[in-house]
Amino acid sequence: MKSEVWTRLSEMRDAPALMEIDRLVWDERNTPAGRLVWNSREQFLQSCPPGSQIVAGIGGRICGYIGFKPPTPLPSNSHVLDLNIAIHPECHRMGIGRALMEALLALAAQQGVRKLSLRVLASNPGAVAFYESCGFMEQGRLVDEFFMDGQYVDDILMWRKV
């Protein structure tokens, strides 16, 4: 029996769970910034205010999120949302990522967004394959953009229409 995945906009009370997901997910293998550890709940909430993410869970547990924001404050760029997504390591292959992407597509369409964009490292082929399965295409590549773990890594820019 498959567990039911729910989604909703993030709320202030989600901060501890989302901070923990960030701590577990973001590290030297998948982001050039390295390990992400928030210094405080306030710092997290300032960077990721309630409603700036869609959270997904099973039962009472938050299993992942998809963050979204316009790439710039320019009105001429407001039809685009930049994304970042993280799934708790214990919740992979449970439909969380797909549920988050579907929820974001619905919200983006509701808000008149026309384009979704994201960046992913070429050294993360699982993420690239997931994004492609969600309809994202490569729109550019910054070759040898980062030097990580002794090798140069391309930064892939991906997009899809809403």
Structural features:
162 residues, alpha+beta, 4 helices, GNAT_dom, acyltransferase activity, transferring groups other than amino-acyl groups, acyltransferase
Question: How would you summarize this macromolecular structure in one to three sentences?
Answer:
The chain is of the alpha+beta class and 162 residues long.
Listing every helix as H and every strand as E from the N terminus to the C terminus, the arrangement reads: EHHEEEHEHEE
Shape, please? Answer: globular
Count of structural domains: 1
The CATH topology is Aminopeptidase
Give start-end ranges of low-pLDDT stretches.
none
Strand order of the largest sheet: 1-2-3-4-5-7-6
List the helices and strands and how they pair.
Blueprint: E1 5-9, H1 15-25, H2 41-47, E2 53-58, E3 61-69, E4 80-87, H3 96-110, E5 115-121, H4 125-133, E6 137-148, E7 151-161
Parallel strand pairs: 4-5
Antiparallel strand pairs: 1-2, 2-3, 3-4, 5-7, 6-7
General description of the model:
Strand 6 and strand 7 (151-161) form a beta hairpin. The protein has a single domain, classed as 3-Layer(aba) Sandwich (Aminopeptidase). It has a seven-stranded mixed β-sheet with strand order 1-2-3-4-5-7-6. With 162 residues, it is α+β, with helices and mostly antiparallel strands. The chain has helices at residues 15-25, 41-47, 96-110, 125-133, and strands spanning 5-9, 53-58, 61-69, 80-87, 115-121, 137-148, 151-161.
